[in-house]
Every structure is written in structure tokens, then in C-alpha cells.
Automatic annotation (TrEMBL):
The PH domain, residue ranges: 1-26
Name this protein carries in UniProt: PH domain-containing protein
InterPro entries, alphabetized: PH_domain (IPR001849)
Taxonomic path: Eukaryota, Fungi, Dikarya, Ascomycota, Pezizomycotina
Organism, scientific name: Ajellomyces capsulatus (Darling's disease fungus)
Length: 209
């Protein structure tokens, strides 16, 4: 992989990407007519720009405002602009991933955006409780260090917000999309082991008999 491309995946360059995209989208009269169009981003963007637990990410996952999610013509125009921005800045055509929402139901998309608005912060981000289960479901088939690193940091943040360990059953039941696979016990066992080695305690509350 080109070292230049890797260098461009830092927090500073993510901001440059998004500023260029915002300008390009605003410069398209047909797209501008629908403004404002909000997007939220989970995964790597959160890790690099918000948690800062890693220095770079391969791309930016983007979920577009549910109000326009079914407007195929608008989505096509936006995708074209995204590709053009990537080419103009030599970031490649796949610097932003707008297909990440294909598995989201419309109610789930609306719920995510509602929560993002309630956060009232400049960084439009998916709720932390939704990123963690998504990463956990990938754990059995993924050996990606960054996935594990992200899960640890997000779990620790949730535990701090909760002022204590999380209910294991509650994590397994998280299913905003309505279509998600229940997180296997063995996956949670693996997560608890890794978390314990890093932070010295269990991320899950003891089950009451």
C-alpha cells in the first residue's frame, strides 16, 4: 500500500477530506437544493477523530440522512461528488464508504440520527452503544487489531459513563436494527479476557444467582 495514502489517513487529513467534500457538495446546485444534508460516521472516523486511540483509518464510513436515504438520484449525485473529491486530492475513489448503511433498516437509521442530534456536538457520530456490538459481532471472524482496539476503548468509555461494569445480557440484546445476530457468549468471554488484561477488571457485571 502506498505510504502517501497511509499518511493521508490521519485526523488532520480526515478534516481536510470532509472540508473538501462539504465545499464540493455545496458547489453542486442540484445537491445544494436539498441542503442541509446530514451524515453520521461510525468506525474509523470515531477512533481517529474522537477517541484518538489510533492515528489513522483506511476510509470514512458515511450514513446519509434518513430523509434522503431513498432518493436514488440524489444518492447517485452525492456518490459521484465523493469519488471526484477523492480523485482531486489523490486520496483514491474509495476514501469514503457510503455503502455502509445498506444493511440498516429505515427505523434504525432514523433512530441513529435522532441520537446523534441529541449529542449536540460538532462530530456527528453513531451512538457508542451501537458501534461496540457491531464490532463484537465481527470479532469471531476478524483478526484485525484495530477492531479489537476500538472495542476496548468504546467499552471502557461506556463503563465510565455507566459508573460501573455493563450488564452482559444487555449487551447481547442490543439490536437496534432488528436484524442483527445475537453476540455469542464465547465472543463476550474473549472480550472480557482482553479487557481484563488491559484494564485490570471485568467489563461485565457479575450475574446474580
Amino acid at each position: 500500500m502506498d505510504n502517501i495514502i497511509i499518511a493521508l489517513r490521519t485526523s488532520q487529513m480526515l478534516r481536510r477530506w470532509l472540508e473538501a467534500l462539504d465545499k464540493a457538495l455545496g458547489g453542486n446546485e442540484l445537491i445544494y437544493a436539498f441542503s442541509p444534508i446530514t451524515m453520521i460516521s461510525p468506525a474509523g472516523y470515531l477512533a481517529v477523530s474522537y477517541f484518538r486511540n489510533r492515528a489513522m483509518t483506511e476510509d470514512i464510513d458515511a450514513i446519509i440522512d434518513p430523509e434522503y436515504a431513498s432518493d436514488e438520484e440524489l444518492l447517485r449525485m452525492m456518490h459521484t461528488v465523493m469519488v471526484e473529491v477523492g480523485r482531486d486530492l489523490n486520496f483514491g475513489e474509495h476514501w469514503i464508504n457510503d455503502s455502509v448503511a445498506l444493511l440498516l433498516t429505515q427505523p434504525a437509521r432514523k433512530s441513529l440520527f435522532s441520537d446523534a442530534e441529541k449529542q449536540n456536538i460538532v462530530l456527528w457520530s453513531v451512538g457508542l452503544g451501537d458501534k461496540s456490538p457491531a464490532s463484537l459481532r465481527q470479532a469471531p471472524t476478524s483478526q484485525n487489531f484495530t477492531d479489537t482496539e476500538d472495542v476496548m476503548v468504546i467499552l471502557n468509555t461506556l463503563i465510565n459513563q455507566n459508573n460501573g461494569p455493563l450488564e452482559r445480557d444487555a449487551i447481547q440484546r442490543l439490536n437496534r436494527n432488528g436484524l442483527d445476530i445475537v453476540i455469542a457468549d464465547r465472543v463476550l468471554d474473549q472480550v472480557a479476557e482482553v479487557y481484563g488484561k488491559r484494564y485490570g477488571n471485568s467489563p461485565f457485571a457479575k450475574t446474580k444467582n
